[in-house]
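Write out the 3D structure for:
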Amino acid sequence: MSELSVDHLLGIKYITEDDIQLIFETADHFKEVINRPIKKVPSLRDITIANLFFENSTRTRLSFELAEKRLSADVINFSASSSSVKKGETLIDTVNNILSMKVDMVVMRHPNPGAGIFLSKHVKASIVNAGDGAHEHPTQALLDCYSIREKLGDVAGKKVVIVGDILHSRVALSNIFALQKLGAMVKVCGPKTLIPKHIESLGVQVESSLKKALEWCDVANMLRVQNERMEISYFPSTREYTQQYGVNKALLDSLGKEIVLMHPGPINRGVEITSDVADSDHAIILEQVQNGVAIRMAVLYLLASKIQRDED
C-alpha cells in the first residue's frame, strides 16, 4: 500500500494499521533526510500549509513548522490567542479567510474536541489534528509508537503502561488506539480521580500500583499532570502525587529489569519523573522529539501526495 486510506489525519481512531505502518516507513526515509548535511527536500514545494493554533503550544507547533520547512512547503502561522478570534470571530470565519489565501493543508490545535472533524466537513483542505481538547493528538501517538518500534524493534506484543493524568490527556487516548492497532497490550495507572470511568471498555486494564505496573511493562509512558485543565483538585498535593506516581532512580533500580521510559513533554521534573531518570539511558524523551519531526514530515508528505494526485 503506498497511500493513506484517509484524506485527513483527524485521529488514530480513523486510520488503519496499514496507514500507521506506511507513515512509519515514510518516516524512516525522512529520518535519513534529517540527518544529512542538507536537511531540505523539495517534496512540498507547491503546497501551502496553515498552522492554526487556538491553544498555546510550543513543542508541537515548532515540530510541525520544522517538518513543513524541511519539506519546502509555504507556511502561514496563525496563533489565535493574539488574533481576531478574541474579537469573536468564529472558527469557520477564520478558516474561510485563510482558505481564501489558497491554503492546501491546515494543521490545527483547538480546545474543543471534534474541531478538526467539523472543519474537514466545511473546507476544501486537508486537515491535520494537532490536538483537540482532551480528545486526540494523533501525531504524538504516532511518534510515541514509532519511538517504541525504533527502541524495541516492534510494537506488537509489547506491554505498555500509560501513567498519570489519563482523564485530561489527549495523548493517552490516541496512544491507546495506536498501541492496540499495532498489537501492544495496554494498561493505565494513576490516581482513581484521574482515570476515566469507562476506560476498560477500550480494552485497557487499570492498575492502581505504580510498582506493579512497572514490574509488568516493557515501556512506561509518563504523562504530565495537566494542572491547566483542572478546575478542581484531583489529588491532595503534588508531593503526594509524586510519592505514589512519580518515577525515581531507586524505584527503577528495584525492578530488576530494564524498562523504556517515555514522556510527551514538557516534563515537570521531580513530579512525574526525577531529573536523573529523565536524563538516564532508560529514557527516550529526546528521541521522541527528534522522531516527532520525521513522523510529521511523513504525515504531511503522504496527505499532500493525495492532494497533488487529485489535482492532476
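Residues 120 and 268 are 35 Å apart (CA to CA).
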